[in-house]
Design goal:
Layout (H helix, E strand, L loop, with lengths): L1 H14 L17 H20 L1 H10 L15 E14 L15 E13 L2 E15 L2 E3 L8
Antiparallel strand pairs: 1-2, 2-3, 3-4
Helix pairs in contact: 2-3
């Protein structure tokens, strides 16, 4: 059990990006109210799916994975995540590429500070503050599914 908890805690570090500060100059995001609502709905749907079941959240993560990175989805091994964004930190991240990739994803890439809580059934395994990237592409929001233990 201790090994499983260690693997799950390691995923939180990976989930949060484990990166240093994002290069660039902070400036307010110029999003329409409708686009901002799409980002909020994305995380609301993700959390609701996790409250329903691990398989429901896994399906949503797969369905909302950025289309250029569909092959990069991972299994959360029965765990779920709850993501609580701090919306005042939402900003454009025009130079970002997913770990191990050289290409910037198609679409408008944004990054937002989040608190991510990892749950196994009803037990909280861990929580961490980090950053997650989301993309607005063809009027839809896509993300990058986390992987447990790398």
């Amino acid at each position: 059990m201790a090994e499983r908890v260690a693997v799950l805690l390691a995923c939180i570090a990976l989930l949060a990006g484990c990166a240093g500060p994002v290069a660039g100059t902070a400036r307010p995001v110029q999003l329409s109210d409708g686009d901002r609502a799409k980002f909020k709905e994305f995380y609301e749907r993700l959390n609701k799916a996790g409250d329903t079941s691990a398989s429901e959240q896994q399906k949503l993560l797969k369905d909302t994975q950025h289309p250029d990175f569909r092959q990069k989805t991972c299994d959360l091994r029965g765990a779920t995540i709850k993501v609580e964004p701090t919306w005042s930190t939402l900003r454009v991240d025009a130079d970002w590429a997913p770990p191990g990739e050289k290409a910037h994803p198609r679409g408008d890439v944004y990054v937002v500070a989040v608190t991510v809580t990892l749950r196994q059934e009803d037990a909280v395994i861990g929580s961490q503050i980090g950053s997650l990237h989301v993309v607005l592409l063809e009027d839809q929001v896509f993300g990058f599914a986390p992987c447990l233990g790398g």
